Amino acid sequence: MPTATVPFSVQLREASACRHAAARASGFVSALLDGGLGVDAFARYTEQLWFVYAALEGRATGKSPEEDPVAGPFRRPELARTPGLARDLAYLRGPDWRHDLAPLPATAAYAARIEECAAGWRGGYVAHHYTRYLGDLSGGQALGDRAEKQWGFAHRGDGVRFYAFDGIRNPAAFKREYHRRLDALPVSGQEKSRIVDECRRAFDHNSAVFRELGELYLT
Ligand code: HEM
Questions:
Q1: Per-residue model confidence as pLDDT tens digits over 63-84
Q2: CA 20 to centroid of ligand 1, rounded, Å
Q3: Which atom of ligand 1 is nearest to the CA of 210?
Q4: Which class for 142: exposed (0-12), middle (13-18), buried (19 or more C-beta within 10 A)?
């Protein structure tokens, strides 16, 4: 099928499939899923997520769909992850969790790229939004399940609130609607290609974060 006739959501998924597989297979993620890491590694990962979602949900991203027809329709209050992350980190690290919090270099680079897109390129922001939130609603849930099982956290309670999407009753329907919005994105074919490239880049940022976490926690 010529690219123009392939729905944009399918283009995005297919273009990032190899990178998705690489992120899933990274040593850190595999060790986490296999129960081979301690809770400190999980907390350190959760800290990295804080920086990523602070960038995704920060001030530069707060335009309404009317003001921002490209990225606005994707930003939904029920997706917000920073409130849950703040509670998870207070639980995992204690009330002063913000005090010594510092991103790994790969996390800082990732967050900076999201902020750059949020501030100046709405299509790029959509690529980052898709890569994280749709992943969190999909296979990313496995990490929350594993953490509950391994460390006895209450189901989607403190420590794993990040994985709870209380406002989304039917994730499959939500994802279908999200795909429809991607397919209806009001941008040119050339811009779509740039967004696909940015999506690949977003996956690479995730893999770089996993690599650095692996250097710290895998021996
Ligand atoms: C814990 C390891 C992971 C597993 C087991 C996993 C597994 C999956 C599975 C099974 C799906 C398809 C779900 C469906 O069709 O509804 C999916 C979708 C997705 N995953 Fe992952 N994944 C993992 C990690 C990641 C990571 C690290 C990212 C990127 C940060 C990511 C991004 C995505 C995205 C964007 C989708 C949505 C694809 C689409 O429907 O358009 N995943 N994942």
A1: 777 788 999 999 999 999 999 9
A2: 7
A3: 27
A4: middle
